[in-house]
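Running this now, will post back.
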Amino acid sequence: MSDVITNFSIRKDILAIAFPMLFIQLTVFGRTFIATYVINQVDIQATASFAVGLGIIQTIGMLILGLFSAISIINSHQKTISIIFNNYFIPYIAISFVISSIICFFLVGFPKISYFFKISPAIQHDVNLFLRAYIIAIPAFVFASALRFHLLSFKQTKIISISNINGFIICTLFTLLFSWKPWQMGTVGFAYATALSFWYTLFHLLHFAWKNKLLPATLKNMGCKLNYIIEILKEGIPMSLFFSVESIFFSILVLATQKYAIEYITSYQIVIQLVLFVFIWPLAVGQGVIILVGNNFADGTINQNITKIIKNMLFIAIPVIIFSIIIILILKQYYLKIFFVKQNYINIGILYIYPMLLFLLIDGFAIMYMSILRGLRKTLFPLISIFICYWVIGGCIIMLLRLYTTVTPISFVWVLSFSSLLRALSYILYVRKIIILKN
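Update: finished.
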C-alpha cells in the first residue's frame, strides 16, 4: 500500500512541473509559428531574413536556457531559501548581466562578421536590422530566464504559465499590429513585439517573486563570491554546450543533404518539425524529474526513491510517445499533404518518417535519463556522451556515406537513430551504475 501511495506522490510531483512546462513550450512554438505566417504575408525576402535571424536568436536562446537551467538544479539541492539568497542570488544577477552584455555586443557587431555566414546582401541588410532591434529584448529575456528557473525551483509553475500566456498574447497582437499599414515592419516588427512581451514577463515575475518573498528583502551582507559563480558555470556550461552540440549536428545534417535533390531537404525539414514538436512532452516531464530528484537529494531520500522516480518517469512519458508515433503513422499522408502537392515530395517525406519515429522513441529514453543525471548534477557525462555518439561516431558514418556511397540522405537519419541509441544506452548504463553505487 505504501508503494502505491509513494508512486502516486512521485507522479503528482512530476506532472505538477511537466504540465505547466508543456504549456510554456507550446506558447513558444505558437509564437514562432504565428510570426512565420504573418511575416510570410510581407514577401519572400522577409521570410528568408526571418529564418536566418531567428536561427541565430534561437541558438543564443538555447545557450542561455542551458546555462540558466543550473539555477533550478542548484536551488533544489539547498535545504533553505536563506542559503540561496546568501550564496547564490547575487551571482545569478552578475552572470545575467555579463551574458546580456556579451550578447548585445555580438548583435551590434554582427554586420562586421556576417560575411562568415555567406548571406546575400539583401537578406543580410534585413537580418542586421532584425538583430539590432532584438537587442531591446535581450536583457529582459536573460534576466527573466534566470528568474523563471529561480521560481521553478520553488515549483511556482502557475505564475510561469500565466506570464508566458500573457507574453504570447502581447507578442502575437503587436506582431500583427506592426505588420499592418502604415508600419509593415516585417521581421523588425516581430523583434519589437518580442521585446515588449519579454519585458512584461520580467516585471510580472519580479512582482510575483517580491510579493511572495521569493526575492531577498535586502542585499545587505550578500556577496558575489567566485566559488559560487564557478559552481553555477560548472553546472550550466555543460548543458549549454550539450544543446549546442545537438543543434549544430542537425544543421550539419541539413548541409550534408544539400548535394541531393531539393525534395530531400524540404521533406526533411517538414518531418523533423513534426517530430521535434512531439519532443515537447518528454522535455517537460524531464524538467519535473530534475526538480524532484534535486528535492530528494536535498532531504536525503534520493537513495530510497531514485528507482521509483525512474519507473514513474517512464510510466508517464513513454506511453505518450508511443501514442504519438501511432497517430503520426496513421495520419502521415494527411500531414504531408498540408505542405506538399506533388506526390514525389510526399513519398520522400513518408520515407523520412520511419527513421524519424525510431529516433523519437529512442531519444525519448535519452531525454528521460539525461534528466535524472541533471537532477543528480552529473552534467559532464551527458556532454561527453553526445559528443562521441553524435559527432565522432554518427558524424563520421554520415560523411563516409555521403562521400563514398550513392545512398539517399534518408540513410543519414537511420544513422542519427543509431547514434541516439548509443547515447541512450550510455545514459541508462551510467544511471544504473550510480544506483548500484548508492545502494
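Residues 17-224 form one domain. More later if anyone needs it.
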